[in-house]
Structure formats: C-alpha cells, structure tokens
From TrEMBL:
Name of the protein described by the UniProt record: Probable DNA 3'-5' helicase RecG
InterPro entries: DEAD/DEAH_box_helicase_dom, Helicase_ATP-bd, Helicase_C-like, NA-bd_OB-fold, P-loop_NTPase, RecG/Mfd, RecG_dom3_C, RecG_wedge
Domain Helicase C-terminal: 523-672
UniProt keyword annotation of Ribosomal protein present: no
C-alpha cells in the first residue's frame, strides 16, 4: 500500500497540494482516495435551497432564474446579481465588478455553485461563488472543460470542500489519483471474509464510490467501505481486549457478614431489580483475576451512586481501597456528604463510636486547608480510609494508597484518558475500573456499540421519584410565555418548594463591548456595495445570558421578594459550600447558577428549573440539568427558554429534549447531530473521526458481525502475521496519538 502514502505534491503539484493540506488536511494519495463524496446529485435533481445553514460552505445544484447588472451610484464599478432556484426557494449570487460573467451566467442554465452561505436583508446569498455550468455548450469557469461531458452518464459527486477548493476541483484531483494509483491499492480484508459477506474488492469500491453510474454502484461501494472501517477498527479493539484479558488483577470478593452485608442491612428501601442485576454483574467482574472495565449507564436519578458505593464496599471488604473521582468540587463534596450519611457509623472505622466493621471515607479536593489535606493523605496512604472521594487532586503524585483495588469515575466524559490512567497507575496491580454516566456523549455511545466496554444499564427509577415535564419557552415569538414561566416559579415557591435558574455564563468575565467594533459593524451594514461577505456581520447573536445579570434582573423584577442567591465556579470554595448548604436547608428560594449544578446536586425539595438560552447547551447537558428537579415526592418542571426561531436546528434539539426523558434516545439524537467523534482518539466531535461511511447508529449489525470476525481472526493470529495488508491498514488507522490512546484506555 506504499503508493497510497505518496505525497500529493507528486500527483497535483505543490500549489494544489498545499491547498488540499491546509484546507482539508489531505496530504497523501490515500487521504484523497478516502475523502469520499458527501452526497451525489443527478442532472435535474436540484438542491433544496431552504435547508442551507448560514456560514456553511456548500455546493448546490440549481437553475439560474434571473441575472441583473447593477451599476454603483456615483462611482465606477458594478454588482452582478444572479438569482438561482430549486423551483421553490431562491438563493442570491453576488459578484462585484465582474459584469463580464453575464455572457455565461444565462437564465435557464443549470450549474454547480459553491461558496459560504451568508445572509443580507433576510435573503440567503453566496458572495463571489465558484461555479461550474452543466449546459452541454458551456465550459467551466475553471477551464476544466465541459462539465456535462465530464459527468456524462454518472451521478455528480459533491465533496466536503472549502472556499479554496470547490467540489469539482476535488473531482479533478480524485480522477487523477484513480487513473494513476487505483492498481496500487492493497486488500486489507481476508479473501474468505469478502466471500462470506459478498463484498467487492477495494479498488473497485474506490472507483465506484467516486464515480458511480447508478445508486446501485454507490451502495455496493459503501457496503464494502463500511466493512473496511468496521473490521479494521474491530481488529484494533479485539487486540486491546486480548491484551487487557492477559493483565493480572487481584480478585475482590466481599466476606460474609462483612461491611457490605452490614450496609445492605441498614438500607431503608429495597434495591430495584435493575440495581440488583447490575450489582451482580459488577460483583462477578470484581471476583475475577483480570481488571474490570465496565461502563455503568444510568438515567438521572436511577441510583448509580448507590450501586457504585456497594462495589466500593465489596472491595474494602476484601482488604482493598476504592476511589471515587468526581469532576467538580461541588460534586465531590456532595458525594462525600451523601455517602457518609448513607453509611452512618460504618464511615467512622477506628473512631470513637464507629462500627467495628467500618472504614473511613476521605475527601480530597484542591481547595482544602493544609491540616485536612494532610489527614486525608495519611488516611489513604496507611489504608485507614477504605474509600477516598475527590477531584483531580487525587491524581497528584503525592497521593498514595496502601492497596488500590477499584477506581470509580463519575461523569467520565469530563476526564481525559491520561487522568484516568494516572489514577489507575497508583495500584500495585491494575485496579478494577467502573465509569459512570447518565447520558453518554457520542464517543461513549460509539465505544459501547463497538463492544470495547462491558456495559451495565440502570433504566428503572427508584420508588419515590417523580416525573419531570419539560417545555420549550420561545422568548421572542411568545414573550408572554416567559412571563408565565416566572409566575410558575413564584407558584412553586409559594407551595414551599424551590427553584433553579441556569445560565450559560457567569457574567463578570467579559470586557466591556468595544465601541469601535460597533461603529465598524454599523458602517459595514450601511455600505453593502463595498463589502464582500456580510453573512457573519448580519447574523451576530447577543452574548449569552449570565448568572450575575439574570439574578439582578429577577430580584428587581419578576421574582422580587423571594430569596435569590447565585452559585458559580469562581466563587470561593467556602462560599460555594455555604450557598449549597443553605439551599439544601431550604433557606434559599431560587438558586441562579451555571452548570456547576449539572450533576450530583440532590435537593429533593427543588421542583422547577428554568434554563436560560437553553439552545447554547448540549442535549446531554440539558438532560443532566433537568435531573436536578423532581427528586422528591412532588412533580418536576423544566422550562427551556430560547430565542431561536421555530424550524431551526437549535429549536429541533430543544424539542427533542422536551419530547422524551429517555437518556438512551437523547444520546442517539446527540450522536446523530454531532457524530461519534474519533472512536480511537480524544476528539469529542466528528471533526477528526476515522469513520467516514460507517454509522454507529445505522450500521450496528455490520459492526457486531465485524466484531465476531475480528475476534476470531485475532484469536487465530494475534500479531496478524498472515495478514500483512490488514496490519498495514491497522498501522495507518492507529497513528501515534491514537495508538497512545489505545494503550492508556
């Protein structure tokens, strides 16, 4: 497969290669051939123009409806306006001082038009777009010859492109690569696997994905390329699973009549069926001689912390120690308080009045005073603290354990692999690992589907939890709805309950608005004829609402007379703790906060949450946030306030959150919108994904079948000695960063 590693400079020249590298990160022939078309268009099948997103680089197929040359008033120059249509909607193309284009841009002609979508006077537009006409007698503006002849009898590929490299220029580069190097493409899939699953050879798949003559050609190519991505990735994961299973770990079996039994006997309620099932799965893993690597997925309020605590007590019972790593001090303190309360005198081992079966529960955060910090470090090092709870402070080099047996990571997407790895390295042997999350981020969903993590699911809510109703409040379209939202807050407080108001910003961090910038923008808007691109200038949004400003507005306005306080990450630790203590004690009616209250905060008396600028939060965040209400016997209410218009993608996201309480369904929606991220890397979005045609939502059957095939092959040939081209494909997939990620994961 060496030819695919050839630099593009040899194929397309230095100038074009630089554009491909800078704008699309394509540097080799292999990169180019694996840059598949984003979609395909057929002659006569026009692009739906009303679905174009502002600020997106697009390539559209449309028909020219009207061409107008407008001279500038009182000075030299002109503006050429071209209106194109899909038959329903219109898009404006604007060219400055290029009146000569009238000769080729004629009404009735069809063409591909590429540029960045802007907006002016509420009309979508492309300013000075690249284009390629598809009339039989028209030649391309790029000088590449007749587009009609170039794409005769084929679907027209539309590539993910850039301003410097429109789709049809990419087509020319790809055509050159296919002509020169298609015969040099290797075959990573074993022949017997291709035969079993009726897959075409890779060179044929690459030809058909870039140059299909029919939809059937495209589907055959995609079917083969999905298998390449799924199988090579599954081989990497199978090798890692095999390596993990060979690592030694100390079995941790709780003793009869020990700490875990004593804790269970004191529980004032019965575990749900789900909690019992998941606890049994974890107990079985802890009893093995290889490290557990398990994801605990549970709905907000499903009792994940209780299940994790029982696992930690089992490890302490077996003579080891357990650590709970939390992403924020507020959450670490909350966990510490609730665990100590649940355990009672079992959390006072060795202390006066403590149970003889008990242990100590240490808390370690970055802001603790020196005496408390020294005591926590001592208790962990000597083993008196069987359970340690803390933030990133637990990862510091000076933190030591006598016998670390279990690491529990809460809200695992908040931590990097390096941080988890540093904590696990504190055990003499690899400790067992349990990661918890309420709504998986996209990469976690992907890893789960790929079978890299053993997964336990809690989908039952414990008795006593109340339903949460969620509604979108369109603040601009229906301002009376926002007025009613504040009335609902007053009504709930009047019943003796409490409320949260969540804002995306603290409010004391931004400098004052630059008056020069405002003046410049005003001048830009007034003198459109001299501006090349007004998309960003005319579509600016106001800054997100802040805690400080919102609290002041509420105190002076709709919530005057209520006890309103603020909470955010830049308050001193003592101040944060005091605010949360007073709120939990019912001494505060309304808490205006940032997402610092997103996870772990448990105040059963809170029944209503108003999330301001809700469109600025992700799906997972919104689901987590609303889980702070409805934790007691009274029903919960969550109001998502947004100024985004109906029909926009942002509003669709909010409607989805309002439409379901199912965290699994929301994670799928999140994944559809953000993609799965790089399954083998640290990117948390689809930007750097190694998956191009494979979807973890739509192709689960392919993925699971590929997992079975990969597991079988790795068991027979762990080092892939008999499959050199597969090994080469694996090395290409696992660059240095991804390989390191796999090692640490």
């Amino acid at each position: 497969m060496g030819a695919l590693d050839e630099p593009l400079t040899k194929l397309v020249g230095d100038r074009t290669a630089k554009v491909l590298a800078d704008s699309l990160k394509l540097r080799t022939v292999g990169d180019l051939l694996h840059h598949y078309p984003r979609r395909y268009v057929e002659r006569g099948q026009l692009t739906s123009l009303d679905e174009l997103e502002i600020d997106e680089h697009v390539t559209v197929l449309a028909r020219i409806e009207k061409v107008t040359l407008i001279p500038f008033r009182g000075r030299k120059g002109d503006r050429l306006e071209v209106v194109v249509t899909d038959g329903r909607s219109r898009l404006s193309l604007v060219f400055f001082n290029q009146g000569w284009r009238q000769k080729e841009l004629r009404a009735g002609a069809q063409g591909l038009f590429a540029g960045k979508v802007g907006v002016f006077n509420r009309t979508r537009q492309l300013v000075s777009p690249d284009y390629q006409l598809l009339d039989e007698d028209a030649t391309a503006s790029t000088g590449a010859g007749s587009a009609a002849q170039q794409f005769a009898g084929r679907l027209i590929p539309v590539y993910g492109a850039s301003a410097q490299m429109p789709s049809w220029k990419l087509s020319i580069c790809v055509e050159t690569a296919l002509t020169k190097h298609l015969g040099d493409v290797g075959e990573p899939l074993p022949a017997e696997l291709r035969e079993r699953h009726d897959l075409i050879p890779l060179p044929e798949a690459l030809e058909l994905i870039h140059r299909p003559r029919s939809q059937a050609d495209r589907e055959r190519a995609q079917s083969r390329l999905r298998w390449d991505e799924a199988f090579v990735l599954q081989v990497a994961l199978a090798q890692r699973r095999a390596a993990d299973s060979a690592l030694p770990a100390k079995p941790r079996k709780p003793r009869a009549g020990g700490l875990l039994d004593a804790f269970d006997a004191r529980l004032p309620f019965t575990l749900t069926e789900g909690q019992q099932k998941v606890s049994a799965e974890i107990a079985a893993d802890l009893a093995t001689e290889h490290p557990m690597h398990r994801l605990l997925q549970g709905e907000v309020g499903s009792g994940k912390t209780l299940v994790a605590l029982r696992a930690m007590l089992a490890v302490v019972d077996a003579g080891g120690q357990a650590v709970l790593l939390a992403p924020t001090e507020v959450l670490a303190q909350q966990h510490h308080r609730s665990i100590v309360e649940m355990m009672g005198d079992l959390a006072e081992g060795g202390l006066l009045g403590g149970s003889e079966l008990g242990t100590r529960v240490a808390l370690l955060t970055g802001s603790m005073g020196a005496p408390a910090r020294r005591q926590a470090l001592l208790d962990m090092a000597c083993g008196d603290a069987g359970i340690a709870i803390g933030t990133h402070a637990l990862i510091e080099e000076k933190v030591q354990f006598q016998d670390l047996g279990l690491v529990v990571v809460d809200e695992q997407h908040r931590f990097g692999v390096e941080q988890r790895d540093a904590l696990r390295a504190k055990g003499e042997q690899p400790p067992h690992l349990l990661v918890m999350t309420a709504t998986p981020i996209p990469r976690t969903v992907a890893m789960t589907v790929f079978g890299d993590l053993e997964t336990s699911v809690l989908d039952q809510l414990p008795a006593g939890r109340s339903p949460i109703s969620t509604h979108v409040v369109p603040a601009l379209e229906k301002p009376n709805f926002l007025t009613r939202a504040w009335e609902r807050v007053r009504e709930e407080v009047g019943k003796g309950h409490q409320a949260y108001v969540v804002c995306p910003r603290i409010g004391d961090e931004e400098p004052a608005a630059d008056p020069k910038a405002k003046k410049k923008r005003k001048a830009v808007e007034e003198d459109f004829e001299e501006v090349a691109d007004l998309g960003a200038a005319s579509d600016e949004r106001r800054p997100p609402l802040s805690v400080v400003e919102t609290a002041e507005m509420l105190v002076k306005g709709p919530l005057s007379g209520l006890r309103v306080e603020i909470l955010h990450g830049r308050l001193a630790p003592e101040a944060k703790d005091e605010v949360m203590r007073r709120f939990a004690a019912g001494e505060v009616d309304v808490l205006v906060a940032t997402t610092v209250i997103e996870v772990g905060v448990n105040v059963p008396n809170s029944t209503v949450m108003v999330i301001m600028d809700a469109d600025r939060f992700g799906v997972s965040q919104l689901h987590q946030l609303r889980g702070r209400v409805g934790r007691g016997s009274a029903a919960g209410l969550c109001l998502l306030v947004s100024e985004m218009p109906g029909g926009s993608a942002a509003r669709a996201r909010l409607d989805a959150v309002a439409g379901t309480l199912d965290g699994f369904e929301l994670s799928r929606i999140d994944l559809e919108q953000r993609r799965e991220g790089d399954v083998l890397g640290q990117a948390q979005s689809g930007v750097k994904s190694s998956l191009k045609v494979l979807s973890v939502l739509e192709d689960e059957e392919v993925i699971l079948t590929a997992r079975t095939e990969a597991t079988r092959l790795v068991a027979e040939d762990p080092d892939l000695a008999a499959h050199p081209e597969l090994r080469t494909a694996l090395e290409s997939l696992l660059d240095e960063d991804r390989a390191a990620y796999m090692e640490k994961g």
